Amino acid sequence: MEVIFIIGSNTKETHPVIANRMIKAFRKGAKIIVADPRKIPMVKFSELFMNMRPGTDIPLLNGLAHVIVKEGLQNEQFIAEKTEGYESWKKSLEVYTPEYVEKITGVPKEKIIKAARIYGGCRRAGIFYTMGITQHACGTDNVRAIANLAILTGNIGRESTGVNPLRGQNNVQGASDAACLPNVYPGYQRVDLPEVREKFEKAWGAKLSPMPGLTATEMMNAAIDGKIKAMYIMGENPVLTDPNMHHTVKALGNIDFVVVQDIFLSETAKLADVVLPAACAAEKDGTFSNTERRVQRVRKAVDPPGVAHDDLSIILDLAGRIEYDMQFSTPAGAFEEFGRLWPAIAGIDYHRIAHRGLQWPCPTKEHPGTEYLYKDGFPKGKVPFTVVSYTPPAEITSDDYPFVLTTGRNLFQYHSGTMTRRVVPIEEHAGTPYVEINPEDAGHLGISNHEFVKISSRRGELEVRARVTSNIPAGIVFMPMHYHEAAANILTNDVLDPVVKIPEYKVAAVAIKAV
Amino acid sequence: MMHNITVKVCMGTGGVAAGGGEVLDAFLNEISSEGIAASIEKRCSPGKVGCRGLCAKDVLVDVIIGNSKVTYQHVKTDMVPRIVKEHILESNPVLEWAVGEDYHNFHDRQQKVVLSDCGNIDPEDINAYAAVNGYIAARKVVTSMTPEDVISTIKMSGLRGRGGAGFPTGTKWEIAGKQDAKTKYLICNADEGDPGAFMDRSVIEGNPHAVIEGMIIGAYAIGADKGYVYIRAEYPLAVERLKKALDDARTENFLGKEIMGTSFNFDILIKLGAGAFVCGEETALIASIEGQRGMPRAKPPFPVYQGLWGKPTVINNVETLANVPYIMRNGPEWFASFGTEKSKGTKVFAITGKIKNSGLIEVPMGIPLREIIYDIGGGIEGGRQFKAVQTGGPSGGCIPADLLDTPVDFESLAKVGSIVGSGGMVVLDETDCMVNIAKFFLEFTRAESCGKCVPCRIGTKRLLEILERITKGEGKPGDIALLEEMSVDIKMASLCGLGQTAPNPVLSTIKYFRHEYEAHINEKRCPAGVCKDLLTYSVLEEFCKGCGACLRACPAGAIKGEKKKPHIIDPSVCIKCGACLDVCKFKAVKKE
Amino acid sequence: MVTLKINGTEAVVAEGATVLEAARNAGIYIPSLCQHPKLTPFGGCRLCLVEIKGLPRPVTSCTTPVSEGMEVVTTSPTIERLRKTVLELILSDHPNDCMVCEQAGTCTLQELAYEYGIRENRFEGERRIYAKKDGNPFIERELEKCIMCGRCVKICDEVQGVEAIEFGYRGFDTKICTSFEDDLDCEFCGQCVSVCPTGALTGKLWSKQGRKMGVKEVDSTCPYCGTGCTITYHVKNNEIIRVTSNDDTPNEGLLCVKGRFAYKYVSSPDRLRTPLIKRDGLFFEAGWEEALGLIAERLQGIKAEHGPDAIAALSSARCTNEENYAFQKFIRAAVGTNNVDHCARL
Question: What is the ipTM of this complex?
Fold first, then answer.
């Protein structure tokens, strides 16, 4: 890889081993561009750091495209052969001059031009992002803006290129593939298409609903409205991970019957009517699919504690009790059925991945797996440029809430902390919640390092210790999401992206004062 | 009184330390003060000059009137009025303060190439260098010669590296010149670290422009556009003069873009070393310039192929580079007329130790050691017996008296188990214990080992421990064999020149002075009377008058005795300081 | 490609390869302590010395690039003598407490001492003793066991990009420490621990938990972020005592602090051990029969009364593909609603 463009990903802390790979490329001469509101650790390896304001990804990305087009760095052949809508999209870029983009993003125009030249001048360039892109009310458009940049330069469909979202959790990819999603069956096959539905009804021997279901965040709203009477939660902790915690707690309180199946009595489990003890990853067999779609083996190393069971056994038992025949009884059997219904993994079996995983699509037993997608073109033929325009974050700062709060992870803790916070050395080293604040802001507010501050938003307030650091610009504060005793999601905004319903964790207006 | 009058005051580090600055001021004051000022001022030009070599006699001052020169030694400020009055005003040199025969011997036996202008010109004045044909060679090279011509001239001269290993300079340049790389570097190694060595410092202090000119020529030959002088931060005067010289050379367009109207670009940066001996090793030096810890790396690949920042890099020693302009000016044949068949030219040595005229000398290669020590050096101090000369610093070896006729050149010194090295020469006499000398050098290399490779890091420590044991009288049979075994393995297995040569002092002292080791180990005796733990002081009853001088002088209270009766030294209390021996007027204290 | 002769046999390797790589490629063993395939050559341990025709002295094979027609001898009486001397020197400054050392059985130094049969040592002498300076909860440092191979320093810099540690001091007093012995600024990835060839760097959590005897190794996938590093659980008496990763994995043996050191959640006393049923706001332990019976009854009841869409389900990105597949199938086919989602968005 010659150019690595990292936007909205704190790779060194959230995907440390992928950062290792980036550093390896860097040592071999790859240039790294970082765009982030915070001076994240990867900046150390960057050729160029664009310290942008939160929520200004679209103007920044459009600004890069503007310069690329203006300087003639676009990949004309790729555009002609594989894309559509270029001309009208190009017109939409006109306003995004470096001067205009500088005004919105705070990134000096020279840097915008330089970044465009580095990325646009390279045909082996990859873009990497995580929730810094998606957790916005305009998250879908952010991703589209990234895709525009990739197809403008033809940096997709070949090795060392692409649009690379880095999955935050061990099996987000797999849970999505397996269709723990309200609108699709396994393998992204839409529930609202009758022929698809028939295929699954036949395979599963049951009548299936033609109505797409509710997303996680919509479920909470429906619960508030009294439309949800029972909820079954397997291995999730929405109380801590959903935005606007008070809202989530209220929603769960409104549900008649809540089942939580977990390895710990999580904040959510405490609100349940029945709690089922599950086996953890080290206590069961199966597979995880990583961020590169690599299906890899999970193996049982130890027995679960007490009478805890693995999740699959619990589901099978429960299905039996309501007289539904699941048709398999082992993880291998479940995987095999999954493969029968989704050709992309039909070629994968436990035997083939005994030593090393395989990346789907892998349609036959002879297929070596697929390292990168779109080698032979896009599924729908030509891929469109999408006009995306800048919309400011849903919540902007005001006199009452003058700071922008952005949230994320740190290196040591993981998600809601149910696992890592029970590991003694991790807690010893990184067991205290904090808010990062710029020294200048801290000075104005009379806040000193390690002292408690009170942070409030329109949704709630909390007290937490300040970590004064110049890695964060003035006007912005950062909180990690891991700590229940100072849960960042008390403050975050539950406004959703209209398309994929991701909440805007990355921008909320808050007020801060010393206590 | 119509002659030109010049006063030259030695302002090398030795000169300055001895008060050269004050002496210079005194001359300036005296000359410009009342009465005599008007008549003399115009003609007299007190200048600052660099090192004259014979540092033992600093501050040295030349007073030149017309063609006659008188050199004064040990000049102090209070001597200045008389010199000015009697010599300059009345033309009666103060002969009792002038240097004597040994000073002339010291100089007459030498052959100066590199040092020829040191001590004669003001090193802080680029015009002074130009006045002695400075930069003529560089101009000729960059305006009218091809790099190949330059390289073949240097090859013809037979110049070999003066930093220690003696690699042919022309060949090194030739390899670097052939490397197909856009960027190449030339580094001048001025990280002189051998104890007692100050050749490079003196050259830079005395004639920095010669080094710069040599670098311009070298850079042109190999195609480098950037040079570094890696110099010890402990050499502030050399650094200061070098900085000024570089600035002046830039002003004159001898450095910078399009040098002397040609398309050749070359500039030089100064990089200060932080005092690690190992940074004189070229790969460690490169690491240090790159901002890393000064640790050597393995060769091959050699720096001429992959050096600084991975680019072809030539590293030449100060003296090597300072020879270059003289070779280009006077021709390779002239240079090759000095020295031996394989070791051409001259070499600068710093002679120190138990010698009368310690200082800096430049001699033709091949000169016998004896001439250096007895004719130039004036022999051993205090009429004591010569024992050995240690050449090449901590990497070298000791050469005994019966090999004094060994010619000083790369091959001959190697044959007797030592090296030319960078040019340090420490003269030892009968009062030096050879085991202790080996220990001294091992203490140095042990402390200066970078710690990277096992044989050097732990091996030198273990060697030292055995030597310490021997000098404490705890030597065991088999220790000599073990020392030899280890030394051979450390030399073979170590990564860089430091470890590969660190055992040399041990091996050469065992080779030539095995009996001293045996005396320490088997008889628990130090023949030179140096190793304290092996000494006993006793009172010879027959000579002792019971005066009590030793009793009063003993700081440990180890001596007892009544007045007028023989005293006794209690060996369990004695700290072997030798105070009793020094104060006894009756030679009644015996050390054995 | 470059052709050279190793011990008289022709070998062909890619240009730029080192002599050591060429030899290993050809199945010829050369001992080494400091060389590591992930790191640039160091050349400090001197064990991989070989003789090369035309060179005046033995050179380290790990630092010497191959060249056409090169003739290499990897073992000879001189070479073996030098290796033995080097090993003896290292061991003369080593605690040699393999009996109680965490690394015993996986220690390269121990293995080499065994191979070269070093029982007597010609070089007795002073050993380095350090005052323990150890604030961190992850990595145990026993600097007395450090052989200064530099792997930890290099992996921290070259691979991890952190540069937390450096070589400090000189000669025999050289030690691995932070720059100017300042406070440690470390990511605790433990990469250094994974490449340490001796017991100088080990995991604090590993202490006295088990070494090789009676330990079962199980390959699996890390349960933390989406990178999906392949890990190996070391299990003794039904407890995970260590996590490592092999070099031939997609993650090339690299792990982060969570993957390597955050495994104790598995045996946390907080783990749920039995089903719980809430009555009047308090949880009571229950059997599976009772708990699952209750769930089946309530789900069926609510479905009957309010329809299947009154039931919602959240699955987990933490669970396996098989569990997720089964869960959504259960919700869709057995319960009858598409109200199933997981935390991909959060």
Answer: 0.93
